[in-house]
Design a protein that fits this description.
Layout (H helix, E strand, L loop, with lengths): L9 H7 L4 H8 L3 H8 L7 H11 L9 H8 L1
Helix pairs in contact: 2-3
Length: about 80
């Protein structure tokens, strides 16, 4: 089972779309270190930013989150 702290799948989706953290940081106007923290799940983007990431990667936002881990960690 995945670690409950692994809430987002940004790193996975970037790899699938053959994009880099640096590219995403540039698109969002964010510091690359911030994007790196999202990719390692040491911090999380806002919902607005998550929606923008989904738009940039041309995926549904649900592909960027692991809701089952959030739900099971609260039980």
């Amino acid at each position: 089972m995945a670690d409950c702290r692994d809430i987002n799948r940004i790193k996975v989706m970037l790899a699938e779309k053959k994009r880099t953290n640096k590219w995403l940081a540039e698109q969002l106007g964010k510091d690359p270190a911030t994007v790196s923290k999202w990719c390692t799940n040491s911090s999380q983007p806002t919902i607005e930013t998550l929606l923008r990431i989904a738009e940039l990667l041309e995926v549904d936002y649900t592909e960027l989150v692991r809701a089952e881990n959030v739900i099971t960690s609260k039980n």
